[in-house]
Amino acid sequence: MDSSVPWSGSAAESPAVCDLLGIDSTTVTLTRQGAPFAVDDTALGRCRVHPFLFDCDHRDRHGRAEWVSPTAIADRGTVSFLRESYDVRSRVDHEAATAAVSRLGTDVATLSRSGTVRQTLALADPETVLVAESRPGCEEIAVADSLAERAADTTVTLTTDAGLPAALAATDVDTLVVGAGAVLTDGRVVNKVGTRSATLAAAHEGVDTLVVTASDKISSDTGQDTEEREPGELCQGDAPVRVWNPTFDVTPPAVVDTAVTERGALDTRDVEGIAAEHRALRDWTL
User: What is the pTM for the complete model shown?
Assistant: First the structure.
């Protein structure tokens, strides 16, 4: 579940959660606590759902688990509010995208695959979109293909992450739009590596930077793991070379012009207020 706030403890430190779910707390780690939401269930009535995400060392640990796409919830015989929870996620992304559309210019740049950003671009229908490949993974190549196929009137240009700053200087891009893996309490934005350099370059070139995300991506903390990837992705030699290969980087708030969620545009005070809400949820106990 990507729409969640960090959980600082382990499952063993919250045995009530594990007991309630029938999970052996010695074999899993409780990594995320989602924002609770209310649903109406035909059998149970009005319910308050508290989502949790557990991590385990391998899939065979829990025989009842099955790995499926989130959309498969619609085809499964399960409690009704699981499907509603997925619909809530989709609705929130759409509301954030709708709130951001009016802030986009006609010539846009983006990087890092984000469902909220893709919805924003689809609604805005800009004249040009400059897309950085977004290493590692290069998932934005598929996004560029999709944009070019769906929007016949939009000119889509694909470039490298390293080439994006030069492309911002050489083109008429007026808005850089990115998503967020997390927005920290102090306003810093954690997103796919390359976001920091792109936003710094945008600021230098006078290009507005717009962060579009759901409000539940606002973290109650100021720290964030940038998630180091395998060194072998960059260096396969035998020389004693140290490798720094992060998945995410952190963008300072000074180079973000606007952050937009389903609640609208947020200033520093708004971010701090939502972070306080999430902190209260994080400290909730059974």
Answer: 0.71
Residue 275: half-sphere exposure toward Cβ, Cα within 13 Å = 20
> Using only C-alpha atoms, what is the Rg of the chain?
20
**Max Cα distance, the chain (Å):** 64
Which candidate, 178, 236, 245, 186, places its Cα nearest to that of 212?
178
Strands 4-6 and 28-34, how do they pair?
antiparallel
User: Closest by alpha carbon to 136, among 235, 229, 249?
Assistant: 229
Helices first, then strands: H and E counts in the chain:
7, 15
Residue 60 pLDDT level (bands cut at 50, 70, 90): low
Residue 34 has pLDDT above 80, yes or no: no
Token digits of residue 14: 């919250």
> Rounded to whole angstroms, how far apart are CA atoms 124 and 232?
40
Neighbours of 222 (CB within 10 A): 11
| Look-up of token digits 């792109």 | 198
The three-state secondary structure class of 144 is helix
Q: 142: how many CB neighbours lie within 10 A of its CB?
A: 12
Spell out the domain ranges in the chain: 4-65, 93-282
**Percent of the residues in the chain that have a pLDDT greater than 70, as a whole number:** 73
**224 near 176, Cβ under 8 Å?**
no
Judge residue 157's burial from the number of C-beta atoms within 10 Å of its C-beta, 0-12 exposed, 13-18 middle, 19 or more buried. middle
Domain 93-282 class in CATH: alpha beta
CA geometry: angle at 219 spanning 233 and 14, to 5°?
A: 90
CB 50 within 8 A of CB 30: no
